[in-house]
Structure formats: C-alpha cells, structure tokens
Amino acid sequence: MIAAFQPKVLAGKRILITAGPTFEAIDPVRGITNLSSGKMGYAVARAAREAGADVTLISGPTALATPFGVARQNVKSAQQMFDAVMDHIGGQHVFISVAAVADWKVVNPSEQKVKKTGDGSVPELKFEQNPDILASVATRTSLAGWPYCVGFAAESENLIEYGASKRERKGIPLLVGNIGHNTFGQDDNTIILFDEHGHTILPRADKLTLARQLISEIAKRIDKNSL
Ligand code: CTP
Ligand code: CA
C-alpha cells in the first residue's frame, strides 16, 4: 500500500524515536560503534508519520535521508542521545527505542590522536557503562503513565527467552526482538513482538512493511490504554 493510503491510526499523537548506532570516541579520529545501519528506525519513523503522528527522530550516525515530514536531531554518543531524548520526552505519547546504543563508553578519551609507539605496545582502554535511555524513560512512565514505551532487542541466540525476560527487566509493555545477523545492514528482517500475553512472530518482510505492522500494533495498544 502506498504512503498516502496508510490509515491515520496515530493522528494527533506525538512519537519520539531513536535510531542508528551510537559512536563512542577513543580519540579525535577513532571510536567504537556497532553494525546498526539505522534502516529499521528510519522505517519506523516513516511509518509513524504516514500514520498521522508528529514524529521526532533522534539519530546516531547513519547514511540515510530523513523521512518526509519527520523532525530529526543528530547525535553521536550514547550520552548525547540520552540528553536529546530527555530534552524531547515531555509531552510525547509514545517512545520507540530502536537505536543500538553502545553499552559502554571509553573513560577519558584522549584529546589528541593516540600515536603508535616503536616498541609495539598497545593502549589500554578503560570503559564505563552508558546510561540506559529506555530504562530511564520507562521509569518516568511508571510515574506519569506515559509515554507508551517500545524497545528493540538484537540478540545472537535464544531470542524467545531473552526477549521475554528483557521486556520485563526494562519494565516496558512491548519489545521487538530480532536476531542481529538477520537485520544489521539488510533491507528486510523477521521480528518477534513480546508483550504481557507472550510473543507473536511477524514473518520475513522488508523493513517498511514490518514498521507499518508494528505501528498498527502500537496504535491498537495505546487505544486500549486510552492515552
Ligand atoms: N537501550 C537504551 N540505552 C542503552 C542500552 C539499550 O535505550 N544504554 C535500549 C535499546 O534502544 C533497545 C533496548 O534498550 O530498545 C534493548 O537494548 P539491548 O542492547 O538489546 O539491551 P541491553 O539492556 O543493553 O542488554 P544486552 O545488550 O546486554 O543484551
Ligand atoms: Ca545493549
């Protein structure tokens, strides 16, 4: 179905979405990131906009064009993504956390490029944990009753077991699970929706089709919550 004919199931709703990888600096020319292309998050932003929502996209570094009608703010690190989400979260009806957020950042990244030494010695990196953006928003939701929080989980094994337990650990009503090597950089994917009733498999399809199905599932659920 083409965009203009998508049912406007999210008309009047404000939706905040994170997408893409984050990038943690080691020095001004090097850093640590992950394999997310941002395609799924951007597809979700497009599908939410097609469904009539007012969409804000907080994006890590990607090579993708901003979907039509979507307001986008670019960030690099997980801390910057956390700050941008907290700046925008007030008044949002739904938060969809698609970004592959780096779990750790380098403590004290070097201000100048780290140079190789002649003796073959290597730098030692120390890490600390980044803030958990989704868990922080979910804590807020437990007090205010909104926004409705949707998480994503890319696993490499045991998806059904890990997805169900991750949804509960994060304290969110809906989690979308997928297997990392089936999705990263690809145009299509298979996803599993986890909610309080169990799980439902959405068979392999292109990411825009899956994003539209996900948006329709979210719309049904927030209707019930009557946000
Ligand atoms: N997430 C987040 N902030 C983080 C880490 C994760 O907002 N610092 C969000 C992701 O955007 C995703 C969800 O949490 O929606 C699950 O991310 P995932 O990496 O699968 O879970 P973790 O809790 O980080 O557990 P692990 O990586 O150990 O599996
Ligand atoms: Ca993680």
Description:
- With 227 residues, the protein is of the alpha/beta class.
- 31% of the residues lie in helices and 28% in strands.
- It contains six helices and twelve strands.
- An eight-stranded mixed sheet has the order 5-4-1-6-9-10-11-12, sandwiched between helices. Strands 2-3 form a two-stranded antiparallel sheet. Strands 7-8 form a two-stranded antiparallel ribbon.
- Strand 2 (24-27) and strand 3 form a beta hairpin.
- Helix 1 crosses helix 6 (207-225).
- It is globular and about 65 Å long.
- The mean pLDDT is 94.
- It binds cytidine-5'-triphosphate and calcium ion.
- Cytidine-5'-triphosphate (CTP) is lined by residues 78, 97, 99, 101, 103, 130, 132-134, 151-154, 166.
- This is Coenzyme A biosynthesis bifunctional protein CoaBC.
- CTP binds at residues 103, 113, 131-134, 152, 166, 170.
- It comes from Pseudoduganella guangdongensis.
- Its cofactor is Mg(2+); FMN.
- Residues 10-220 form the DNA/pantothenate metabolism flavoprotein C-terminal domain.
